[in-house]
Amino acid sequence: MRVTRVFIIPGFALAALLFTAGCSSPLPTPQLAVCPTPAQGTLLVSVREPEQAPIPLILRVQPEAGGVRYIAMDTLGNPQFNGLIAEQSVAVNRQPLYRGMSPENLISAVYWWQVREQLSAACMSQAGLSRIENNAEITLFANTKPVWQWRKAQPDSVILAPTKITLTLRTSSP
């Protein structure tokens, strides 16, 4: 005889559980030993999830020994998270009040956008990605599934599949 147990989860915990279950897998990160290092600078990033208002962030990119650091702030300059791409992983320190998309995915998506025109076959292979480029767009695939798309007609935007989150990026003065 099989016994089924039912647990009652308070509303907030249930919402968090459902949200976590619906999250996509992380976007692959580069292995910096074979992938290009992005330029240092400041980016203005707008994160737009489907049917949501955009969330603006200021993202500082700083190459450093052992990796590339990404520091995110809201438009008032309050820290949101910082992350370091190193050894094909992203280590993130998130502030408790940050409520945006996964910092790991955001950092990886911005990295691929920064180096989109410099990618080598070795870099893509090490990250577990394949790339299809045509006259209109570049699409990155992980295990034959599209995970990142950049359209030449909209050079400042990236679409993350399958979540359909759109990042709009602008370079700011250093």
In words, what does this structure look like?
With 174 residues, the chain is of the alpha+beta class. It has a single domain, classed as outer membrane lipoprotein receptor (LolB), chain A, CATH 2.50.20. A 10-stranded antiparallel beta sheet has the order 5-4-3-2-1-10-9-8-7-6, with helices on one face. It is built from 3 helices and 10 strands.
The fraction of residues assigned to DSSP E strands is 35-45%
Radius of gyration from the alpha-carbon trace, in angstroms: 18 Å
Q: What order do the helices and strands follow? A: HEEEEEHHEEEEE
Fraction of helical residues:
10-25%
- Taking strands numbered 1, 2, ... along the chain, how are they ordered across the largest sheet? 5-4-3-2-1-10-9-8-7-6
- Residue-averaged pLDDT, rounded? 86
**Count of beta strands:** 10
Organism: Gilvimarinus gilvus
Protein name: Lipoprotein
Keywords: Signal
Signal peptide: 1-15
